[in-house]
Amino acid sequence: MESFATKTRDKKAALKVFKKAVRQHRQPELNVTDRLRSCGAALREIGAAHRQEAGRWMNDRVETLHLPFRRRERAMLRFRRM
Question: Quick one: which of 31, 56, 62 has its CA closest to 17?
Fold first, then answer.
């Protein structure tokens, strides 16, 4: 969510991101977020607060899932520059 949220990362920005995600995909079984209060407030407004997991290390696991793609992406960029 960090990449989509505004600089303020307030409830309005979080609500916009969650609504866009639900529109493009389906309603998730579980929302893993950091402990930012704006995420919880936005999920309560959508009606999905009961599906929120906010833990100290849970969000780190979600963010590191993106890492292998980023590594491959960087390797491909180096190949193209040659």
Answer: 31
Q: Rounded to whole angstroms, what are the CA distances from 34 to 38, 46, 58?
A: 10, 18, 8
56-82 confidence digits (pLDDT tens): 677 676 667 667 777 777 777 777 665
DSSP, collapsed to helix, strand or coil, labels residue 47 as: coil
Output the CA torsion 30→31→35→38 (10° steps).
-140
The neighbour count for residue 11, using CB atoms within 10 Å, is 17
